[in-house]
Amino acid sequence: MRDTTLMQQALGLTPPWTVVRSDFDTAAGRLDVEIDFTPGSRFACPTCGAADCPAYDTQRKTWRHLNFFQHQAYLNARVPRVRCETCGIRQVNVPWARSDSGFTLLFEAMVMTMVSAMPVKAVARIVGEHDTRLWRVVHHYVDEGRARTDASKVSRIAIDETAARRGHDYITLFVDIDQARVLFATEGKDAATVAAFAEDLAAHGGEPKAIAEVCIDMSPAFIKGVTESLPAAAVTFDKFHAVKIINDAVDQVRRAEQKQQGVLRGTRYIWLRNPDNLSERQRSTLEALPTHHLKTARAYQIRLAFQDLYEQPSDEAAGYLKKWYFWATHSRLEPIIDAAHTVKRHWDGILRWFDSKIANGLIEGINSLVQAAKARGYRSIRNLKAMIYLVAGKLDLRLPA
User: Which residue from 140, 255, 277, 387 could staple onto 273, CB 3.0 to 4.6 Å apart?
Assistant: First the structure.
């Protein structure tokens, strides 16, 4: 009697549910707790909520519970089906587990806490369950958390893509800048991803026409998608992506010049870094180069000057960019000239930064979480998306305590 009373209190059971006995198998290292309901009890219909429904029959069920010390513990019970005058025969819900789950609510809460910090396969090994069963738990809580997402106040977003697997299968992330959370993740990196986001935004109380600011790279697909699906949004082109375009042009100049100038061999990363970020060895190498004769050095200075654009006062930025554009297009360095023309085609979105002051630095931080998640290994993109929402979506999971 004392053991059953202790178990009753520990499980927090209330009438009509009661612990009738507990059995511990020393050899198997397993604790089984038997739960039953008071004969003649009546229950609420799980479908319509009608109270005072009589039990029709019972089905025996078992749920994995939190370990008892180092031993696995299970709850076992006869679960009644009730006869509802409106809905017919329905199986009641038990207070310690959700419908159709083989785990108790507390076990699932423990699993969700663990998978936020380590691979699902590792959690499966620790708890002694197949990872497929744990993925069902993850998807259940993530889907419920996403259903509760409130996007009604979203007005500024950042968009970026990341490779789901090496070399192929991209996922595009849509980030709420003000709440620093992933709102939506979807396969692909084309204009259709923005349309899918707009639809999902509306489904969560948001308004596509209320999106006032969008930060993207210079992908024509994203530009097209924003124009079509987020018609009121002003576009800011991500400054890190803009600088990367000039960086790539510098590297093209270096590769071409290296064929005639052997001194450039092994210097690639010198030209891709800012002077303050060079190591002592790299700085010494740069100082020893005949930079006043090198095309690469001229391209490098043009790159640094473009980067300095973002340090200019807002009212001087357009004039500064015009001067830079003249210099770049008269540099006689074809990759730099091509990059300058790319800047010209995206002029307004580059200068928009001085009004919006938004950049994809936030989404890069979130991408680091995504990369860490990918490194754990997932069998499907669906699983990867679930983990993205879990670690970066700021979901209201409402896990049992």
Answer: 277
